[in-house]
Write a structure and sequence with these properties.
about 150 residues; alpha+beta; five-stranded antiparallel beta sheet; 2 helices; 10 strands
Length: about 150
């Protein structure tokens, strides 16, 4: 099932739980998923020292912002979710973690560089943080899990 369809089905199930006389099977459907969303990404140390990095954010193989675009970072700058096309992932509880990556976009034919990978599961909470570093470049992610 593609991701857009999953989001729509989960949203519909969640809306059904709001009304009176909710069918318990439908309420269980809304509770069987969590929603992982990027809040912001901050460059604490660039790969291109003194310059600018162009970054993609990857969630389980889905590239954000997509369309072969990347997001510019200078030392100490933060980019919000909107810069990454509102990066998010719907995860079925109990299925295992989502793999997150920060990827340095390099000019073709030079290969891109995966700065680091981390995994996130359905541990609920807002304002959670992860650090992505390759020993040189370092990026700090803030994310929510609902």
């Amino acid at each position: 099932m593609n991701r857009v369809r999953k989001v729509l089905l989960t949203a519909a199930a969640a809306l059904l739980t709001v009304g009176a006389g909710v069918d318990p099977a439908r309420a269980d459907t809304a509770e069987s998923y969590c929603f992982i969303e990027l809040v912001s990404l901050t460059a604490s140390n660039l790969w291109h020292d003194g310059g600018k990095d162009w970054i993609w954010f990857v969630m389980d193989g889905y590239y954000f912002p997509g369309n072969n675009k990347s997001v510019p970072f200078y030392q100490g700058t933060s980019q919000t979710s909107g810069a990454f096309g509102n990066a998010n992932e719907l995860l079925e509880r109990g299925t295992g973690p989502v793999t997150l990556q920060v990827v340095l976009d390099r000019t073709w034919p030079t290969a891109n560089v995966v700065i680091d990978s981390n995994q996130v599961s359905c541990s609920l909470g807002n304002g959670q943080t992860l650090r992505f570093s390759d020993g040189d470049a370092a990026y700090n992610l803030t994310y929510n899990v609902n």
